[in-house]
Amino acid sequence: MHIGLIGLGRMGGNMRARLRDNGITVTGYDPNPAVTDVPTIAELAQAVPGPRVVWVMVPAGEITTGVIRDLADALDEGDLVIEGGNSKFTDDAVHAGILTEKGIRYMDAGVSGGVWGKENGYGLMVGGDAADVERALPVFDALRPEGPREEGFVHVGPVGSGHYAKMVHNGIEYAMMQAFAEGYELLEKRSDLIHDVTGTFAAWQRGTVVRSWLLDLMVLALKDDPKLAEISGYVEDSGEGRWTIEEGINNAVPLPAITASIFARFVSRQDDSPAMKAVAALRNQFGGHAVHKA
To answer: Shortest CA distance to 21 belongs to which of 184, 111, 141, 114?
Structure first.
């Protein structure tokens, strides 16, 4: 199978490598000439045989919408576009509408795995028609983790559902990181009693109910910098937590833990706290997100 991939940054570049390692031919485009395979989106369309599958992996918002408009001009009727960035689920109807006018198919894909996905595989949540999902299954199987398909891949529902599921996933992630971070701060505060904070987190990695990949990443961060002295406690948010809370309000679903976690990030921008340093370190570990140096 031969696909096009637009966006070769931290995620997209690793996805291209994983796809190629699993037998998928990939022609990639990126504005960065050091990583792109072709100089323009139009030439990408020429390089990929029809009916084409093109995966879009660029920053959400106007950049994604611009790429969708470019693809509407470059692709042909019957081609399929998969939008895998962290777009808001309400944008999917807009993007699908732009492409449908030209007879081009559209799917959305929530993608989790961060900078570790090349090695471990990506969790995939996709929205679209069943026939389009079936058509793209070789791509999804190449990207997802090894093992049973249902443990790393789900066809959630219609267009928009993949990004909706990813939004909720990231809202949960916010709350989990905040819980680890608050525990870290409390352990650090009692240095008279707790002499090995890093070892305490490491001891939770097996046999405990809080063991998880996020815990493993917390241990990695603490081994690199036990006091998190090199990191500022300033933590960004990329939108999904806010959208999850908005949906909670719109549907009268109480989300106290997720809501508290995003307000804690707002607090981090006003006051340098050990807990927020831990959240910043976790985001850097799993997603390669930039940190503010102390």
So the answer is: 141
